[in-house]
């Protein structure tokens, strides 16, 4: 028994029963989310009043100019009397040189608010810009190659989400590619959370089907990466997670059948946010080994993130399922509805992974590294040797494990 705080009764910290319990946690999410059709025109004018005059309007390759979002937002900014500096051309899988370009501009123009209009790539690039614009050192070295402490106040960031999947709109995560070093890596700094995020499902209607599908698979991947980690005992996070996984599978099928199904599209938006706004991670170790492998495939091939995950998840899980058997059994029954009658635990676990692989084929995502642009086996090995290793996975992978996973994904 240990006495905590003077005079208080002891807490029995050492006598907790059960196997692996929920990890201790502190939960905070500082992003204010506005969700629903019409939310941008309804709320952005008022929200803008909280910020200074100089706004950086940041976006990607121009989809917002074709679907009317650019026009709607620039009119709101004009009506609010803002001086707008545009920063465009943020590419998918944003690179560090683009971060530096944006930071230089933000400094020069003394930007008061960065308004990121786009998907994960625009959001992530802008989070890094918000830090780099006020930091004197090299943010790549100090915040991405290693975990740093954000002791400066980043430029305030607001987000208008236009494509769903990464969940970047409600976390401090930013995945950046250093194109010279061929390293793609992400960190989640709560100080980089956007101050507000506007999530209008109608804004996602113009997203091409392939991106809609790969983005939603990214959300499912986030859920699985959290679910397949300790603790295994019944816990709130896993229970919510199963409901979200079933929901994404259901809603993605519905959205493929009818892209104008507002219920399905709006569920996909919020499920994606929920998967990465830290709620599901509470008390969990989390894995993300599949992401770590995919990021390196992306660093070498610039492949679509969700497509890379679709290729790697089934072979990764076939490689490690024995190390987390009870959870893979639960996945098969509770997520895919597989009847356990007459099946051993191992058969059931494999049936769940097969159901996932079948779903990936059904929704039309790639299943081989070759389709992602890894065109020879030697390159697959080279990429495998650059992957980071996750401390939270059911099995601490070795280089040889990753090579084997890549070989079976080739
Ligand atoms: O660039 P534009 O022309 O806007 O086109 C984009 C891009 O080609 C298009 N698009 C976006 N909104 C659209 C639209 N097209 C038509 N209508 C719209 N409304 O969609 C394409 C993909 O955009 P992108 O932002 O690259 O996709 P996504 O949201 O999947 O972001 C991917 C990046 O996020 C990282 C990934 O690694 C990748 O770099 N991630 C970030 C995470 C985080 N911060 O928490 C977690 C994730 O696991 C992920 O790693
Ligand atoms: Zn992801």
UniProtKB/TrEMBL annotation:
Keywords, sorted A to Z: Oxidoreductase
Domain of life: Bacteria
Pfam families named in the record: ADH_Fe_C, Fe-ADH
Occurrences of domain Fe-containing alcohol dehydrogenase-like C-terminal (ranges): 213-410
Alcohol dehydrogenase iron-type/glycerol dehydrogenase GldA domain boundaries: 31-201
GO molecular function, one term: butanol dehydrogenase (NAD+) activity
Protein name per the record: Alcohol dehydrogenase YqhD, Fe-dependent ADH family
């Amino acid at each position: 028994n240990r006495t905590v705080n003077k005079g208080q009764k002891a807490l029995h910290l050492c006598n907790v029963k059960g196997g692996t319990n929920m990890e201790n946690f502190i939960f905070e999410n500082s992003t204010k989310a506005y969700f629903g059709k019409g939310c941008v025109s309804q709320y952005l004018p008022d929200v803008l009043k909280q910020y200074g005059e100089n706004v950086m309007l940041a976006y990607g390759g121009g989809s917002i100019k074709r679907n009317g979002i650019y026009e709607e937002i620039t009119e709101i900014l004009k009506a609010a009397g803002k001086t707008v500096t545009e920063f465009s051309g943020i590419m998918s899988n944003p690179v560090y040189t683009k971060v530096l370009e944006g930071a230089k501009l933000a400094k020069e123009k003394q930007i008061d608010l960065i308004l990121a209009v786009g998907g994960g790539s625009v959001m992530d690039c802008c989070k890094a810009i918000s830090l780099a614009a006020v930091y004197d050192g090299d943010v790549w070295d100090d915040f991405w190659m290693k975990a740093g402490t954000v002791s400066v106040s980043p430029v305030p960031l607001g987000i208008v989400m236009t494509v769903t999947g990464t969940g970047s709109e409600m976390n401090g995560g930013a995945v950046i590619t250093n194109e010279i070093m061929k390293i793609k890596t992400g960190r989640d700094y709560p100080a980089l959370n956007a101050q507000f995020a506007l999530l209008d499902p109608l804004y996602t209607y113009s997203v091409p089907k392939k991106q809609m599908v790969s983005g939603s698979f990214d959300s499912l991947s986030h859920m699985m990466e959290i679910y397949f980690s300790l603790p295994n005992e019944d816990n709130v996070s896993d229970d919510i997670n199963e409901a979200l996984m079933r929901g994404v599978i259901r809603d993605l099928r519905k959205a493929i059948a009818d892209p104008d199904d507002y219920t399905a599209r709006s569920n996909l938006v919020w499920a994606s946010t929920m998967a990465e706004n830290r709620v599901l991670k509470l008390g969990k170790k989390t894995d993300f080994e599949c992401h770590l492998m995919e990021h390196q495939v992306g660093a070498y091939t610039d492949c679509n993130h969700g497509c890379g995950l679709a290729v790697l998840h089934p072979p990764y899980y076939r490689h490690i399922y024995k190390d987390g058997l009870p959870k893979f059994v639960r996945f098969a029954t509770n997520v895919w509805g597989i009847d356990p009658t007459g099946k051993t635990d191992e058969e059931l676990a494999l049936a769940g992974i097969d159901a996932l692989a079948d779903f990936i084929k059904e929704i039309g995502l790639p299943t081989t590294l070759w389709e992602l642009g890894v065109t020879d086996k030697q390159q697959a090995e080279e990429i495998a040797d650059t992957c980071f290793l996750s401390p939270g996975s059911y099995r601490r992978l070795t280089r040889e494990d990753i090579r084997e996973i890549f070989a079976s994904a080739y």
